[in-house]
């Protein structure tokens, strides 16, 4: 049976107490930095995905605009209803789909909170812990 003997904090010298506190604080800061990196990485990844929706929506809306323009040109040139009416219908559908994707991307970006909220909370807890250690 392994038995660990540990000196209580009451028996440690002031220098040993400060060395222990410094070591624990350094370890804690490293862990907090690691947590912040991980949290920010996750948020940046999510924002990148939502930006992809925004770009895709913009591209589809642009294709819709081109189809609407083509429909107007064909309609004026041919004066026949069937050709330009078809192109106009496709253009409106593409523009609506692109508008929806762009709207979805913007709504998702607005709701994204890039601040590392978990890290901020644990830092507050760490400050309280450090205060307790110095009492």
Could you characterize the architecture of this molecule?
- The chain has 135 residues and is mostly helical.
- Helix content is 84%, strand content 0%.
- It has one domain (17-133).
- The protein has helices spanning 14-78, 81-111, 117-133.
- Residues 1-5 have low confidence and may be disordered.
Features:
135 residues, mainly alpha, 0% strand, rod-shaped
Broad shape: rod-shaped
Counted beta strands = 0
> Roughly how much helix do the residues carry, as a percent range?
over 70%
The number of helices is 3
The largest pleated sheet is described as: none
- Taken in chain order, the helices and strands follow as HHH
First-residue to last-residue Cα separation: 35 Å
Low-confidence stretches: 1-5
How much strand? under 5%
- Please state the average pLDDT score: 77
**Rg for CA atoms:** 31 Å
Number of domains: 1
Kindly name the structural category: mainly alpha
Quick overview:
84% of the residues lie in helices and 0% in strands.
List the helices and strands and how they pair.
Elements: H1 14-78, H2 81-111, H3 117-133
Helix pairs in contact: 1-2, 1-3
